[in-house]
Amino acid sequence: MNAESKESKEKEKKEKDDLDQNPAQRLRIRDLGLAIGHHRPGRFNAITDVRGVKVGHSTIVKGHGELIPTKGPVRTGVTAIFPYENNIYWDRVVGGAFVLNGAGELAGITQVSEWGLIETPIILTNTLSVGTCSNAVVQYMTEKNPDIGQKHDVIIPLVGECDDSWLNDIAGQHVQAEHVYEAIENARPGPVVEGNVGGGTGMITCDFKAGIGTSSRKLHQKFGGHTVGVLVMSNFGEMKDLRIDGIPVGKVLAPRYEHFRKRNNTFGSIIAVVATDAPLHSHQLDRLAKRAALGIGKIGSYAAHGSGEIVLAFSTANRVPRETRKMVYKMKVILDQRMDPLYQAVVETTEEAIVNSMCMAMDMEGINGNFAPALPLKTLKKMITNHKKYYESESCF
Q1: What amino acid positions are annotated as catalytic residues?
Q2: Each residue's pLDDT tens digit, 45-101
Q3: Structural domain range at position 372
Q4: Which runs of consecutive H residues, i.e. helices, occur in 54-158?
Protein backbone atom coordinates (compact mmCIF):
# COMPACT_ATOMS: atom_id res chain seq x y z
CA MET A 1 0.00 0.00 0.00
CA ASN A 2 1.48 3.35 -1.02
CA ALA A 3 1.58 6.35 1.30
CA GLU A 4 -1.29 8.10 -0.46
CA SER A 5 -3.61 5.07 -0.12
CA LYS A 6 -2.66 4.63 3.51
CA GLU A 7 -3.41 8.29 4.21
CA SER A 8 -6.78 7.94 2.46
CA LYS A 9 -7.66 4.87 4.55
CA GLU A 10 -6.69 6.64 7.77
CA LYS A 11 -8.83 9.65 6.79
CA GLU A 12 -11.80 7.38 6.06
CA LYS A 13 -11.36 5.60 9.41
CA LYS A 14 -11.24 8.94 11.23
CA GLU A 15 -14.48 9.99 9.55
CA LYS A 16 -16.18 6.76 10.55
CA ASP A 17 -14.99 7.18 14.15
CA ASP A 18 -16.45 10.65 14.26
CA LEU A 19 -19.76 9.51 12.75
CA ASP A 20 -20.40 6.87 15.39
CA GLN A 21 -23.90 5.42 15.19
CA ASN A 22 -24.33 4.55 18.86
CA PRO A 23 -27.39 6.56 19.99
CA ALA A 24 -25.96 6.74 23.50
CA GLN A 25 -23.09 8.83 22.14
CA ARG A 26 -25.33 11.50 20.66
CA LEU A 27 -25.36 14.56 22.90
CA ARG A 28 -27.28 17.82 22.95
CA ILE A 29 -25.28 20.99 22.38
CA ARG A 30 -25.15 21.92 26.08
CA ASP A 31 -23.70 18.50 26.87
CA LEU A 32 -20.90 19.38 24.45
CA GLY A 33 -20.06 22.46 26.51
CA LEU A 34 -21.82 25.22 24.58
CA ALA A 35 -24.57 27.26 26.26
CA ILE A 36 -26.27 29.37 23.61
CA GLY A 37 -27.51 32.79 24.73
CA HIS A 38 -27.98 34.40 28.14
CA HIS A 39 -31.17 33.00 29.66
CA ARG A 40 -31.28 29.67 31.47
CA PRO A 41 -33.13 26.66 30.05
CA GLY A 42 -36.07 25.03 31.79
CA ARG A 43 -35.95 21.65 33.53
CA PHE A 44 -36.05 19.57 30.34
CA ASN A 45 -34.72 22.26 27.99
CA ALA A 46 -37.75 21.45 25.83
CA ILE A 47 -41.05 22.90 24.68
CA THR A 48 -42.67 20.72 27.35
CA ASP A 49 -41.18 23.02 30.02
CA VAL A 50 -44.23 25.16 29.25
CA ARG A 51 -46.67 23.54 31.63
CA GLY A 52 -49.26 21.33 29.95
CA VAL A 53 -47.53 20.99 26.57
CA LYS A 54 -47.20 17.41 25.33
CA VAL A 55 -45.25 15.92 22.40
CA GLY A 56 -45.53 12.52 20.72
CA HIS A 57 -44.00 10.82 17.68
CA SER A 58 -44.66 8.05 15.19
CA THR A 59 -41.57 7.02 13.20
CA ILE A 60 -41.64 5.00 9.96
CA VAL A 61 -38.38 3.45 8.74
CA LYS A 62 -38.63 0.62 6.21
CA GLY A 63 -36.47 -0.84 3.45
CA HIS A 64 -33.11 -0.08 1.85
CA GLY A 65 -31.67 0.46 -1.62
CA GLU A 66 -33.11 1.78 -4.86
CA LEU A 67 -36.41 3.64 -4.88
CA ILE A 68 -39.40 1.52 -5.81
CA PRO A 69 -42.30 3.98 -6.00
CA THR A 70 -45.01 3.27 -3.41
CA LYS A 71 -42.81 0.54 -1.87
CA GLY A 72 -39.90 2.49 -0.37
CA PRO A 73 -37.43 2.90 1.16
CA VAL A 74 -39.44 4.84 3.74
CA ARG A 75 -37.95 7.46 6.06
CA THR A 76 -40.76 9.60 7.44
CA GLY A 77 -43.25 9.99 10.28
CA VAL A 78 -45.52 12.22 12.35
CA THR A 79 -44.98 14.48 15.36
CA ALA A 80 -47.93 15.72 17.44
CA ILE A 81 -47.91 18.72 19.79
CA PHE A 82 -50.71 19.37 22.26
CA PRO A 83 -50.77 22.91 23.69
CA TYR A 84 -52.13 21.53 26.97
CA GLU A 85 -53.60 18.39 28.47
CA ASN A 86 -57.34 19.18 28.34
CA ASN A 87 -59.81 19.35 25.44
CA ILE A 88 -58.44 22.12 23.23
CA TYR A 89 -61.61 22.28 21.14
CA TRP A 90 -63.61 23.53 24.13
CA ASP A 91 -60.89 25.60 25.80
CA ARG A 92 -58.78 27.13 23.07
CA VAL A 93 -55.39 28.83 23.45
CA VAL A 94 -54.35 32.15 21.96
CA GLY A 95 -52.22 31.78 18.83
CA GLY A 96 -50.20 33.74 16.31
CA ALA A 97 -47.92 33.06 13.36
CA PHE A 98 -45.25 34.44 11.04
CA VAL A 99 -44.19 33.37 7.55
CA LEU A 100 -40.66 34.42 6.63
CA ASN A 101 -40.75 32.60 3.28
CA GLY A 102 -43.82 30.79 2.05
CA ALA A 103 -42.41 27.94 -0.05
CA GLY A 104 -43.96 25.55 2.44
CA GLU A 105 -47.24 24.93 4.19
CA LEU A 106 -48.82 25.02 7.60
CA ALA A 107 -52.44 24.11 6.91
CA GLY A 108 -54.82 26.01 9.17
CA ILE A 109 -52.55 29.02 9.66
CA THR A 110 -54.99 31.38 7.92
CA GLN A 111 -57.63 30.78 10.58
CA VAL A 112 -55.07 31.26 13.35
CA SER A 113 -54.13 34.61 11.86
CA GLU A 114 -57.79 35.61 11.56
CA TRP A 115 -59.15 34.42 14.91
CA GLY A 116 -55.98 34.39 17.00
CA LEU A 117 -56.95 31.01 18.46
CA ILE A 118 -55.71 27.41 18.27
CA GLU A 119 -58.27 24.63 18.73
CA THR A 120 -56.60 21.44 17.44
CA PRO A 121 -53.38 19.56 18.09
CA ILE A 122 -50.43 20.63 15.90
CA ILE A 123 -49.14 17.93 13.55
CA LEU A 124 -45.77 17.88 11.73
CA THR A 125 -45.06 15.54 8.79
CA ASN A 126 -43.80 15.40 5.20
CA THR A 127 -45.16 17.55 2.37
CA LEU A 128 -47.35 14.97 0.64
CA SER A 129 -48.89 13.66 3.85
CA VAL A 130 -50.57 16.91 4.93
CA GLY A 131 -53.98 15.77 3.64
CA THR A 132 -53.79 12.39 5.35
CA CYS A 133 -52.81 13.98 8.65
CA SER A 134 -55.52 16.60 8.40
CA ASN A 135 -58.15 13.91 7.76
CA ALA A 136 -56.88 11.88 10.71
CA VAL A 137 -57.05 14.87 13.06
CA VAL A 138 -60.64 15.55 11.92
CA GLN A 139 -61.48 11.93 12.68
CA TYR A 140 -59.77 12.09 16.09
CA MET A 141 -61.38 15.41 17.03
CA THR A 142 -64.90 14.43 15.95
CA GLU A 143 -64.64 11.20 17.93
CA LYS A 144 -63.81 13.27 21.01
CA ASN A 145 -66.28 16.05 20.16
CA PRO A 146 -69.30 14.68 18.23
CA ASP A 147 -70.91 18.15 18.05
CA ILE A 148 -68.23 19.40 15.62
CA GLY A 149 -69.96 20.38 12.39
CA GLN A 150 -73.39 19.87 13.97
CA LYS A 151 -74.08 22.05 16.97
CA HIS A 152 -70.70 23.78 16.84
CA ASP A 153 -68.11 25.05 14.34
CA VAL A 154 -66.09 22.81 12.08
CA ILE A 155 -62.32 22.63 12.60
CA ILE A 156 -59.34 23.27 10.38
CA PRO A 157 -56.44 21.13 11.69
CA LEU A 158 -52.97 22.62 11.99
CA VAL A 159 -50.58 20.47 9.93
CA GLY A 160 -47.06 21.64 9.07
CA GLU A 161 -44.80 20.03 6.48
CA CYS A 162 -41.24 19.78 5.17
CA ASP A 163 -39.92 17.94 2.11
CA ASP A 164 -38.12 14.69 3.02
CA SER A 165 -37.96 13.39 -0.58
CA TRP A 166 -34.16 13.11 -0.66
CA LEU A 167 -34.27 10.21 1.80
CA ASN A 168 -37.91 9.10 1.64
CA ASP A 169 -40.32 7.65 -0.93
CA ILE A 170 -42.47 10.71 -0.38
CA ALA A 171 -44.85 10.04 -3.30
CA GLY A 172 -45.67 6.66 -1.77
CA GLN A 173 -47.61 8.50 0.97
CA HIS A 174 -46.69 5.97 3.63
CA VAL A 175 -48.07 8.06 6.48
CA GLN A 176 -51.51 6.74 7.38
CA ALA A 177 -54.16 7.71 9.92
CA GLU A 178 -52.84 5.05 12.29
CA HIS A 179 -49.51 6.89 12.48
CA VAL A 180 -51.23 10.17 13.33
CA TYR A 181 -53.18 8.40 16.07
CA GLU A 182 -49.98 6.81 17.35
CA ALA A 183 -48.23 10.20 17.60
CA ILE A 184 -51.26 11.69 19.37
CA GLU A 185 -51.54 8.78 21.80
CA ASN A 186 -47.78 8.90 22.48
CA ALA A 187 -47.91 12.61 23.39
CA ARG A 188 -46.41 13.15 26.84
CA PRO A 189 -45.00 15.95 28.98
CA GLY A 190 -41.36 15.80 30.08
CA PRO A 191 -38.26 14.98 27.95
CA VAL A 192 -38.76 15.04 24.18
CA VAL A 193 -37.08 12.54 21.85
CA GLU A 194 -35.09 14.42 19.18
CA GLY A 195 -33.31 13.79 15.90
CA ASN A 196 -34.47 11.03 13.50
CA VAL A 197 -37.96 10.73 14.95
CA GLY A 198 -41.55 11.49 13.99
CA GLY A 199 -41.99 14.13 11.33
CA GLY A 200 -38.24 14.76 11.44
CA THR A 201 -37.24 11.21 10.45
CA GLY A 202 -36.18 12.09 6.90
CA MET A 203 -35.14 15.72 7.44
CA ILE A 204 -31.73 17.32 6.80
CA THR A 205 -30.20 20.64 7.89
CA CYS A 206 -27.17 22.20 6.23
CA ASP A 207 -26.44 18.81 4.57
CA PHE A 208 -26.27 17.03 7.95
CA LYS A 209 -28.94 14.73 9.32
CA ALA A 210 -31.38 16.66 11.49
CA GLY A 211 -35.09 16.35 12.29
CA ILE A 212 -36.90 17.21 15.50
CA GLY A 213 -35.20 19.48 18.02
CA THR A 214 -36.35 21.44 21.04
CA SER A 215 -35.16 23.87 23.70
CA SER A 216 -36.55 26.26 26.32
CA ARG A 217 -35.75 29.30 28.44
CA LYS A 218 -36.97 30.12 31.95
CA LEU A 219 -36.83 33.88 32.45
CA HIS A 220 -35.66 35.42 35.69
CA GLN A 221 -38.37 36.60 38.06
CA LYS A 222 -37.43 40.21 37.34
CA PHE A 223 -38.59 39.52 33.76
CA GLY A 224 -41.78 37.82 34.93
CA GLY A 225 -40.49 34.26 35.41
CA HIS A 226 -42.16 33.13 32.19
CA THR A 227 -41.11 30.09 30.14
CA VAL A 228 -40.56 30.04 26.39
CA GLY A 229 -40.19 26.72 24.54
CA VAL A 230 -39.58 25.93 20.88
CA LEU A 231 -39.85 22.71 18.89
CA VAL A 232 -38.59 22.60 15.30
CA MET A 233 -38.84 20.22 12.39
CA SER A 234 -35.65 21.36 10.69
CA ASN A 235 -34.84 20.70 7.03
CA PHE A 236 -33.06 23.66 5.40
CA GLY A 237 -29.74 25.07 4.27
CA GLU A 238 -26.30 24.17 2.95
CA MET A 239 -23.22 23.05 4.87
CA LYS A 240 -21.08 26.04 3.93
CA ASP A 241 -23.51 28.39 5.71
CA LEU A 242 -23.80 26.49 9.02
CA ARG A 243 -22.94 28.51 12.11
CA ILE A 244 -23.45 27.49 15.73
CA ASP A 245 -23.41 30.33 18.25
CA GLY A 246 -21.32 32.26 15.74
CA ILE A 247 -18.78 29.48 15.18
CA PRO A 248 -18.35 28.89 11.40
CA VAL A 249 -18.83 25.12 11.73
CA GLY A 250 -19.86 24.64 8.10
CA LYS A 251 -16.82 26.33 6.59
CA VAL A 252 -14.53 24.19 8.71
CA LEU A 253 -16.29 20.90 7.97
CA ALA A 254 -17.18 21.44 4.29
CA PRO A 255 -13.80 20.31 2.82
CA ARG A 256 -14.02 17.08 4.77
CA TYR A 257 -17.40 16.26 3.18
CA GLU A 258 -16.58 17.29 -0.39
CA HIS A 259 -16.91 13.71 -1.65
CA PHE A 260 -20.41 13.26 -0.14
CA ARG A 261 -23.33 13.48 -2.55
CA LYS A 262 -25.72 16.19 -1.39
CA ARG A 263 -29.20 17.32 -2.32
CA ASN A 264 -28.87 20.14 -4.84
CA ASN A 265 -32.41 20.98 -5.91
CA THR A 266 -34.46 20.68 -2.73
CA PHE A 267 -33.42 22.82 0.20
CA GLY A 268 -36.32 21.83 2.41
CA SER A 269 -37.96 24.10 4.96
CA ILE A 270 -38.42 24.54 8.68
CA ILE A 271 -41.50 24.60 10.86
CA ALA A 272 -40.97 26.14 14.30
CA VAL A 273 -43.58 25.93 17.05
CA VAL A 274 -43.20 28.45 19.89
CA ALA A 275 -44.96 27.96 23.22
CA THR A 276 -45.05 30.26 26.24
CA ASP A 277 -46.93 30.68 29.49
CA ALA A 278 -46.61 34.47 29.24
CA PRO A 279 -50.07 36.06 28.89
CA LEU A 280 -49.97 37.39 25.32
CA HIS A 281 -52.68 38.38 22.88
CA SER A 282 -52.56 37.24 19.25
CA HIS A 283 -50.68 40.22 17.84
CA GLN A 284 -48.01 39.87 20.52
CA LEU A 285 -47.64 36.21 19.55
CA ASP A 286 -47.25 37.26 15.90
CA ARG A 287 -44.41 39.50 16.99
CA LEU A 288 -42.85 36.74 19.10
CA ALA A 289 -43.02 34.36 16.12
CA LYS A 290 -41.14 36.89 13.97
CA ARG A 291 -38.20 36.79 16.36
CA ALA A 292 -37.95 33.01 15.99
CA ALA A 293 -36.92 33.73 12.39
CA LEU A 294 -33.84 35.50 13.74
CA GLY A 295 -32.82 32.27 15.46
CA ILE A 296 -33.23 30.40 12.16
CA GLY A 297 -31.05 33.01 10.46
CA LYS A 298 -28.31 32.64 13.08
CA ILE A 299 -27.86 29.01 12.02
CA GLY A 300 -27.27 30.00 8.39
CA SER A 301 -30.66 30.30 6.69
CA TYR A 302 -31.23 33.13 4.24
CA ALA A 303 -34.78 31.90 3.51
CA ALA A 304 -33.90 30.51 0.09
CA HIS A 305 -36.37 30.78 -2.80
CA GLY A 306 -37.45 27.14 -2.50
CA SER A 307 -37.45 26.99 1.30
CA GLY A 308 -40.34 27.64 3.66
CA GLU A 309 -39.70 29.22 7.06
CA ILE A 310 -42.98 29.15 8.98
CA VAL A 311 -43.46 29.83 12.69
CA LEU A 312 -46.53 29.11 14.82
CA ALA A 313 -46.79 30.50 18.35
CA PHE A 314 -49.23 30.01 21.21
CA SER A 315 -49.71 31.08 24.81
CA THR A 316 -51.15 28.77 27.45
CA ALA A 317 -51.84 31.59 29.92
CA ASN A 318 -55.41 32.20 28.74
CA ARG A 319 -57.86 29.41 27.86
CA VAL A 320 -60.60 30.89 25.68
CA PRO A 321 -63.83 28.90 26.13
CA ARG A 322 -66.00 28.08 23.15
CA GLU A 323 -69.06 29.07 25.15
CA THR A 324 -69.68 31.02 28.35
CA ARG A 325 -72.93 32.02 30.03
CA LYS A 326 -72.46 35.73 29.31
CA MET A 327 -70.32 35.18 26.18
CA VAL A 328 -67.70 37.55 27.62
CA TYR A 329 -64.15 36.48 28.46
CA LYS A 330 -61.51 38.57 30.19
CA MET A 331 -57.84 37.96 29.37
CA LYS A 332 -54.65 38.89 31.18
CA VAL A 333 -52.06 40.47 28.89
CA ILE A 334 -48.57 41.75 29.66
CA LEU A 335 -47.54 45.18 28.48
CA ASP A 336 -45.52 45.43 25.28
CA GLN A 337 -42.70 47.06 27.22
CA ARG A 338 -42.10 43.69 28.92
CA MET A 339 -41.74 41.78 25.65
CA ASP A 340 -38.00 42.26 25.07
CA PRO A 341 -36.82 39.39 27.34
CA LEU A 342 -39.31 37.10 25.57
CA TYR A 343 -37.96 38.19 22.18
CA GLN A 344 -34.41 37.44 23.26
CA ALA A 345 -35.43 34.09 24.75
CA VAL A 346 -37.20 32.92 21.59
CA VAL A 347 -34.18 33.75 19.40
CA GLU A 348 -31.87 31.77 21.71
CA THR A 349 -34.33 28.89 22.02
CA THR A 350 -34.95 28.56 18.30
CA GLU A 351 -31.23 28.47 17.51
CA GLU A 352 -30.59 25.85 20.20
CA ALA A 353 -33.57 23.73 19.12
CA ILE A 354 -32.20 23.55 15.56
CA VAL A 355 -28.73 22.62 16.81
CA ASN A 356 -30.20 19.95 19.08
CA SER A 357 -32.07 18.48 16.09
CA MET A 358 -28.68 17.98 14.43
CA CYS A 359 -26.69 16.90 17.48
CA MET A 360 -29.23 14.20 18.37
CA ALA A 361 -29.66 12.86 14.83
CA MET A 362 -27.70 9.88 13.51
CA ASP A 363 -26.45 8.96 10.03
CA MET A 364 -29.25 7.94 7.70
CA GLU A 365 -29.23 6.30 4.28
CA GLY A 366 -32.42 6.59 2.27
CA ILE A 367 -33.65 6.10 -1.28
CA ASN A 368 -31.12 5.37 -4.03
CA GLY A 369 -28.30 5.30 -1.50
CA ASN A 370 -28.75 8.98 -0.66
CA PHE A 371 -26.91 9.57 2.60
CA ALA A 372 -27.15 12.25 5.27
CA PRO A 373 -24.20 12.16 7.70
CA ALA A 374 -24.61 12.93 11.35
CA LEU A 375 -22.97 16.07 12.66
CA PRO A 376 -19.53 14.87 13.93
CA LEU A 377 -19.80 15.57 17.64
CA LYS A 378 -16.18 14.83 18.54
CA THR A 379 -14.99 17.39 16.04
CA LEU A 380 -17.69 19.86 17.07
CA LYS A 381 -16.65 19.56 20.73
CA LYS A 382 -13.04 20.34 19.78
CA MET A 383 -14.21 23.38 17.83
CA ILE A 384 -16.19 24.58 20.85
CA THR A 385 -13.19 24.08 23.13
CA ASN A 386 -10.88 25.98 20.79
CA HIS A 387 -13.46 28.74 20.41
CA LYS A 388 -13.64 29.16 24.20
CA LYS A 389 -9.83 29.18 24.53
CA TYR A 390 -9.58 31.88 21.87
CA TYR A 391 -12.03 34.16 23.64
CA GLU A 392 -10.45 33.49 27.02
CA SER A 393 -7.08 34.54 25.58
CA GLU A 394 -8.62 37.62 23.99
CA SER A 395 -10.24 38.67 27.28
CA CYS A 396 -6.85 39.70 28.63
CA PHE A 397 -6.72 42.61 26.18
Answers
A1: 269, 307, 309
A2: 999 999 999 999 999 999 999 999 999 999 999 999 999 988 999 999 999 999 999
A3: 25-394
A4: 109-115, 130-144
